[in-house]
Amino acid sequence: MHTPCSPLLEIDGLLYFPRMCDKIRLHAAGTLHEDYLANIGLGMDLWCCQFLGIDYSDLVAQVTAGASDEEALAWAKESGTERPAYELDWWTTYMKTRGFRDDLSEKLSQRKAEAGFTDRDDIQSFMDYIIADEA
Question: Can you give the residue range of the structural domain that contains 6?
Fold first, then answer.
């Protein structure tokens, strides 16, 4: 079983998209680690698709049909919502800081406790948590 690539990877300035495509491919191959199955298509996957203005299931169809990350992103940009550069900057900041003093802070604290990371003050967002958890 495999874990997907880093959530910090970008393609064409879009954070997280390579990880989402990697998760789709691993899931289709039956090699995605079971810890990821409960949230596939949800959480950051969902937020990324919402930002792009596409349905997750449509992206899955593109990726499982053999589209590369670049091809899948080109499809998403053509099919979804056009975004100006400043919105991409806002979204990137949102994704990098999700869980830091927002409505998911309590959930992040819970996840840290479950993983034995209560002493890790460096984990202040879900991105930090994912990186620490997969290290």
Answer: 1-81
